[in-house]
Amino acid sequence: MARQMPPLNPLRAFEAAARLLSFTRAAEELFVTPSAVSHQVKVLEDTLGVPLFSRLGKSLALTPSGRAYLPEVQRAFKQLAQATQRLQAAELPVLRINVPPTFAVKWLIPRMARFMTSNPSIDLKVSTSAKMVDFAREDIDLAIRYGRGQYAGLRAERCLSVEVFPVCSPKLMHGAHPLRRPEDLRHHTLLHDDSTYTDASNPDWAMWLQHAGVTDVDAARGPSFWPSYLVINAAVDGLGVALAKKNWVTQELADGRLVRPFDTSLPVEYGYYVVYPEERADDPTIATFTEWMRAEVAADDAQA
Is residue 173 part of a domain? Predict the structure, then answer.
């Protein structure tokens, strides 16, 4: 007699509910209703003949059987995802990358033509998000992330270092309160990058002003924007002075749409990292992309 295989949809519902310990949150992730998740889990329990969850009022907990089953189910899903990735890579060389929005707009897209010219056999599929992707569950091959490069179970290579400095429209260099010294910022609107990075090392106006030795400017005032490229656009339009990452304003400075009113620059511990699963370290498509990035960064550094 053939071994009975549990149905796939109930397995997906179980994995999400067990990982999140919530039918409601699992339903949001799977784009179904909580009752549908509950029903699918019940189908799986009936199929297996064992309870997987203890339901106590509104709380949800795994039974011993559920705790033992969960890692095996997750391992099976991961193996299935990897097998699919290998099959697709063999049939069609596509590299699916996920990057922060401003990295895509200000660094990757302006350079993509060069990658496409030198690697015509690889199609890039680019998506953006601010959070770390789950490589086991999402159809992503490689990600770019801003942080310290500490990602458990993943290989991380620093690709861009970061420094920040104020930038503004050239017209703010003149007028009733021209920008000559950092202290002159008290007469101007500060534009804030409201990116969701909560680590204390992430740069903000308070850190830059302290670094510049300025004590009489309110670092909290002024409008905030997210993603970061909106802060840069606001500065180009003359709304105020932005604290910008060097790599994001290279073209605007070269074109004269932005200027640096002061020379003071603040180096940042954080950086941008190429991140991918350890088991993909020998993937030739990933290797091609990372080598191309290294070459691009080296060319930028040589021109600086």
Answer: yes
CATH number at residue 65: 1.10.10.10
Average pLDDT over residues 206-232: 93
**pLDDT per residue over 77-120, tens digit each?**
888 888 877 776 665 578 999 999 999 999 999 999 999 999 98
Q: CA–CA separation, 259 vs 167, rounded Å?
A: 6
Give the global pTM: 0.68
Number of domains in the chain: 3
Chain center to CA of 61: 31
User: Could you tell me the residue range of the domain that residue 142 belongs to?
Assistant: 94-160+270-302
- The answer, yes or no, to whether residue 298 has pLDDT greater than 80, is yes
Tell me what the pLDDT averaged over the chain comes to. Answer: 90
Q: What distance in Å separates the CA atoms of residue 48 and residue 70, rounded to the nearest whole number?
A: 13
Whole-Å CA distances, 208 to 41, 80, 219, 225, 268: 52, 48, 9, 18, 10
Shared domain for 183 and 219, answered yes or no, is yes
Strand pairing of 94-99 and 123-128? parallel
Last residue of a domain, one of 88, 105, 140: 88
22, 98: one domain = no
Same domain? For 277 and 138 the reply is yes
Q: Return the number of other C-beta atoms located less than 10 Å from residue 273's C-beta.
A: 21
Least confident stretch, 19-28, 82-91, 166-175, 185-194: 82-91
* 297 and 243, same domain (yes or no): no
Provide CB contacts within 8 A for 98, sequence distance 6+.
126, 127, 128, 129, 133, 138, 140, 142, 143, 144
Q: What is the pLDDT of residues 119-135, one digit of tens each?
A: 988 999 999 987 788 88
Strands 266-277 and 154-167: antiparallel
